[in-house]
Amino acid sequence: MAEMCIQELRKKATLYEETDLVPVMDYSACVIKSDKVISDDLFQRLKTGVKSLEDIPEIDKDWHPGSDSKVLNLVHPSLFPLVYGRSCIMPHERIGLSECLDFCGRGVIIPEPDESDTGINVVPKNEEGSGGGEEYKDGRDQSEELEHLAQLVIEEPDHNEGDNVEKDDEDDEDDEDDEDDSWDYQNRSYAYDDDSEVDSEEDETIESSPYFNVSSKDVKSSGFFSNAARAQVIVKLANIHLTPDKPSYDGGSWHIEGQLNEHICATALFYYDSSNITESRLAFRSPCDQENLAMRLGYRQGDYESIEKVFAIRNGSDTLQDVGSVLTRPGRAIFFPNLFQHRVQPFKLSDPTKPGYRKILALFLVDPAIPVISTSNVPPQQKHWFKSQDQSQAATDDTRIISNPMEMDEAKKFREALMAERTVLQQNAEDELKKVEWSFCEH
Fold first, then answer.
1. φ, ψ dihedrals at 354, nearest 5°
2. 132 vs 4, 144, 220, 231, 286, CA distance in Å?
3. How far apart, in Å, are the Cα atoms of 207 and each of 8, 187, 189, 367?
4. Digit-coded pLDDT (tens) for 328-364
5. Which among 360, 288, 345, 354 is positioned nearest to 319, based on CA atoms?
6. Taking burial as the number of CB atoms within 10 A of a residue's CB, which of 303, 322, 325, 346 is the most buried?
């Protein structure tokens, strides 16, 4: 066991030296962190690029509902979402960044879905595989600098997200062979009388172990997503601001990103700035017992205390297992597939007499195999984006106009409805997960 741990650390060290990536919490899936994959220059440009979104009148700032004015939304994907029966779509035209305002108010209303589907979801943007993303973001305001920065950031980590999915598939196949592997281990254990033979066999076992199959060859800079021409990404920019009057952040709730109709398969987080806050961590957990331990482990009737100690579980408790947490310091990027529940852990001001903040860019990757309606099809919905009254009048006279773009108040109501729907979804998922319990019963 110790030798395998050492070998894993050696392989991770080699991977880091060759790719600047560190896989952590190798579970049924893998979380990857990096402090070097994004350059300091790019992080600095990101800080500068978001200034146009931060330096606005206080009355126009979008403090997240229910956050006690601690979470400031700069770009929020649930604001001006796709609303079936309300939002317009251009079914036969592609909307680019340079001409997006010309499409304001145009299109046909997307029909309402059947009762089995939701009526509201966020709108991702497309990113070209060649690095030429042209779609606008249906957020608070237009920012060409932020558009460019988001595109540059995406070019680096896409391969990590794709490789995580591939690794997960390999792990699933490996799990089918776990029982055979355990028998092989028992047979090898009888050879301990001959130290030299043991060393040789252990080395072979470690090298061939399915749990050490990640190398720099798995990291790609092109050709990911089956050479897809573009990927769809949901963009979010948010700051957490603390003050002497509000010196602490209580943390977030356990959740998995998005809803089924959004098809989010992976997340990339970029912590690009913070000041005067204590250590902040992102925690992960996941259902366990993929190996069906209760049925496969050998133990005397009712004598499962040793199993509880070894695996840190309790008979009769749910199978949700805290996997660990990752420090979210400035300059760090974190990537993970949408298989983990995760939550922001609490933090507070380092110096309670001064304000502090933490800033983050989040990119949610839509499953490339299931593309969804994006900003390349949905015209800008913000009424205040109309260039002039003349443009508004011209749009109203256009025969393709079915409805006018949204006012901010209406968009916020749709966001509240979407957030309420997600809250119910997450709670239902939580309830179902907690129904699955460890049961070391008679066997």
1. -125, 155
2. 44, 13, 19, 11, 36
3. 10, 18, 17, 33
4. 999 999 999 998 899 999 999 999 999 999 999 999 9
5. 288
6. 325
